[in-house]
Amino acid sequence: MNVDLLSAAAIGGVVASSIIGVILLPGYLGEKGKNLATKEDIEHITDKIEAIKTQYAFLVEAAKVDNQLRVAALDARLQKAQQAFTLWRKLLNSTQLTLGTVLLSFWNAKRGGKIIACT
Q: Which parts of the chain register pLDDT below 70?
């Protein structure tokens, strides 16, 4: 009798396990599949985001280098323009002194040799 009871309990356990397995196992495996798919999707999206970040960082660095070169070129151009302006002013001042001396002597010659003091 104990054997029959034990056999009946074992059979009942197997039947219950089978029913539970048939009812719960597909849902469990389906959920595991969804989680795996979600994990793979997240990895794929993360890889794309990292690729875009890398590309963006490269473009930002390229823009920085380009801007640094432009600023350096502008600085060099400004320096050359300032040097040219300084030379032009020196030339203009020396020409005015020479021209002024010529005009003064011409004026003095026309006025009978009188020297006029410039103040």
A: 1-6, 8, 21, 95-119
Q: Are 67 and 60 in contact (CB under 8 A)?
A: no
Residue (of 100, 98, 116) closest to 108 by Cα position: 116
Asked if residues 108 and 116 have their Cβ atoms less than 8 Å apart, the reply is yes
Name the token pair of 47: 């890889």
Residue 92 phi, psi dihedral angles, 5° rounding: -65, -45
Q: Locate 78 and state its tokens.
A: 């400004």
Q: How many CB atoms lie within 10 A of CB 58?
A: 10
Cβ–Cβ < 8 Å for 81, 74: no
User: Helix or strand or coil: residue 118?
Assistant: coil
